[in-house]
């Protein structure tokens, strides 16, 4: 990277600092990271001297300062904490600066700035607040830019100092803490945190409305974390990012716990999925699920049927009723109609209905196959046989399909393109984003199919194929993500392959994919516009570039993460503890958040008037596809039937049925004791906290945590490695 965005203001600040044209207001020299607070060029700035011969300069306030410096009050509470307050033309500013040292060679600099507004005004913040300089006040060149905010993801930047310099920086603006400013100014926080070297940080978009007087606004809630080490590989870069994020994460603004009855929502979804006609399409004598409610313009898709069938089949074993039994019967009877005997593979589009494809989108051709649409239904099918499904016709179709996908994988040298001709295997579209070849994480679907087939048929050739595909993933980096749930499948497949081979390189590649999923999330609590009506913290975006979160990719990732945590514990896999922590945190917040994809949980006036596909019925428990920025209407894409398994998966992995009239919901994954179904252990990272709810009509249920009797209450705080026990008098 050799981009240089140096502004005149930054050049002037650098020159003033170099010539010592400033007034020092505070100096703390603790040896490791000397810190100064300066009045320089009518700006209040902070300067930290780094051990790698660089300086970190941060603007504490962008606006007019009082002419009389005596009116700037500093209070030095502790060695690591300074509080500053001063009057301005528009109100009083309060700033708190904290420098923490969570471990050797690491610091976290936290700046919190608030304005008690006394005069209505348009607030401006048109400069990135962090400036990186060499210790001679020149501009450092050629850093490695690893991460910056994309659309509505976490407000983060991750960068090092170049090839010959140690150290790296993680910057995070807690966008959730500065919501009131966005709400009042009517601005979006998408793409507001960037690296414009040598500057980086948050820039407020042009305000549409002024801040009101007599209000208190958080102007800045930033964290800059420095680590002495410089990443030497993509795996190290991912690991360092997570290490630094782990120190910052406890201080981010998060929503409160909510009590949600997962079983109740699953039952409502199951009822509406079975009875609402807009979910189904009749083709000849068979019924198929639509991709979107009330969408009849395209043929049924094999992916859609299997996205519901696999989790519903597992859900039915413990929670089923006549509705789930009927849907499973219909789907199992009709999924075989996607199969092409001549090709030996399932089509994406139902052949009997393919004449409806109108070519209005590039993939709407009967001969065009999207790589993940080829593999996804087969992965779900082989998983069903793994769960005990008995169906000779589908098993024969699976066996023949394995030959087709093996041939296809070899033709593409295991680099799966976006689109190809299903008959000739001609590549029709190699790239998604301009700099990303194919679907890098689709390889994980193929690896899992091969591993499950190896166990199903006991043929070593399938294990060999899984290894060949995995070995093509050596060059993955922090950009290696095409679709989030597929990246999760890839991590799961690689960890399963490690169990088979004990080859640690598979763990390292899996950790990069898992880290990329966490980095594709939004770790901030959006509460402006219509986002006030929902939860959004730790939302996972479906693609590398996508302006909204989506139910299908989210609930699949929750299910995969649960399986990964159990796999790690069962096989003593030494997965990064920081990574495992965030995997568990994602699942916990998904439990509170996935409800808001379902229209009955939201006000009806925040939905789009029209959907791109089909029609949104606001009264049914079928999820909308798109939850985007708070200023955007919901449901603009449509109401996705293929995402309707969300609460089926949550029940499978987060609900324990103890008795006929009692079940327990745990926000953390768990391992049930085989001998005593009423006793189980919470999984995760030691001391990681979660929440547990008990739903019971029986008041005599007794609950113990680590052999200590618990009083009856609405919910309970639990920790990883707690042992829980339930008894009924």
How many helices? The count is 15
Radius of gyration: 27 Å
**Percent in strands:** 15-25%
For the report, how would you describe the main beta sheet?
Answer: 8 strands, antiparallel
The largest sheet has its strands arranged as: 5-6-7-8-15-12-11-10
Write down the overall mean pLDDT.
93
Detail the poorly predicted runs.
none
What does this structure look like?
This protein has about 725 residues and is α+β, with helices and mostly antiparallel strands. Among the domains are: about 10-250; about 655-729, no CATH class. It is built from 15 helices and 33 strands. The strands form 8 sheets. It has an 8-stranded antiparallel β-sheet. Strand 5 (about 75-80) and strand 6 form a beta hairpin. Helix 7 (about 370-385) packs parallel to helix 9 and helix 9 crosses helix 11 (about 485-500). The mean pLDDT is about 95.
Describe the secondary-structure layout.
Elements: H1 8-18, E1 22-28, E2 35-40, E3 43-49, E4 54-61, E5 73-78, E6 81-88, E7 91-103, E8 106-117, E9 130-134, E10 145-148, E11 156-160, E12 168-173, H2 179-185, E13 193-196, E14 199-202, E15 215-227, H3 234-248, H4 262-275, E16 280-283, E17 286-289, H5 302-319, H6 322-334, E18 339-340, E19 345-346, E20 368-370, H7 371-386, H8 392-411, E21 419-421, E22 427-429, H9 442-457, H10 460-471, H11 484-501, H12 505-519, E23 521-522, E24 539-540, H13 551-571, H14 577-593, H15 646-654, E25 655-659, E26 662-666, E27 670-672, E28 679-682, E29 689-696, E30 701-705, E31 708-709, E32 716-719, E33 723-728
Helix pairs in contact: 3-12, 3-14, 4-15, 5-6, 5-7, 5-15, 7-8, 7-9, 9-10, 9-11, 11-12, 11-13, 12-14, 13-14, 13-15
